[in-house]
Amino acid sequence: MSADEPLVSGVDFVAVPANDFDASCRFYGETLGLPCIARYGEMPGAEFQAGNLTLAVMQNDAFGQRFSPNSMPIALRVRDVAAARKRLEAAGVKFVTETFDSGVCHQAIFTDPAGNPLDLHHRYAAPKPGGDQSDAR
Predict the structure, then answer these.
(1) Which of 88, 50, 65 is nearest to 19 (CA)?
(2) Would the CA dihedral through 135, 81, 128, 52 be positive or negative?
(3) What is the distance between the alpha carbons of residues 128 and 41, in angstroms, rounded to a whole number?
């Protein structure tokens, strides 16, 4: 690696803490409809593919960690926040915010069975200058 190359070239996965592995797997696989691309053998861990990001659902105590849900949401890209919200509410998902407009995107925050916040997110305007323009839709 040369000194002018970026040290970090991307994000491979985000760990999602679970206190009930089976409930979390049903939520990410069935409720959200994400494909499960890996299981961690006998360990309570599984990977779900969300577009360009892998969500690694892992039951903390099995990996020697104390359970605590994430405190900030993972933004999940959707085409239409209102339609996605309606579909999830019909499946019993509870939202913790109203749908809101940040000035560049629509969002609505809900939680998974372990209390991790997730964000339905649709960017409708280009990011601020200097940002990655590939996500503007």
Answers:
(1) 65
(2) negative
(3) 43
Task: Output the CA–CA distances (angstroms, integers) from residue 120 to 61, 66, 90, in the order listed.
Answer: 28, 27, 15
Please list, in sequence order, all residues whose beta carbon lies within 8 angstroms of the beta carbon of residue 20, skipping any fewer than 6 positions away: 59, 113, 114
pTM: predicted TM-score of the whole model, two decimal places: 0.88
Q: Where are the domains of the chain?
A: 13-135
List, in sequence order, every residue forming a beta bridge with 37; answer none if it has no partner: none
d(C-alpha 62, C-alpha 130), whole Å: 42
Contact by Cβ (8 Å): 28, 47: no
pLDDT tens figures, 82-130: 999 999 999 999 999 999 999 999 999 999 999 999 999 999 998 777 6
State the DSSP H helix or E strand holding residue 82, giving kind and residue range, or none if neither.
helix 81-90
Nearest to 75 by CA among 96, 53, 93: 53
CB 110 within 8 A of CB 118: yes
**CATH class, range 13-135:** alpha beta
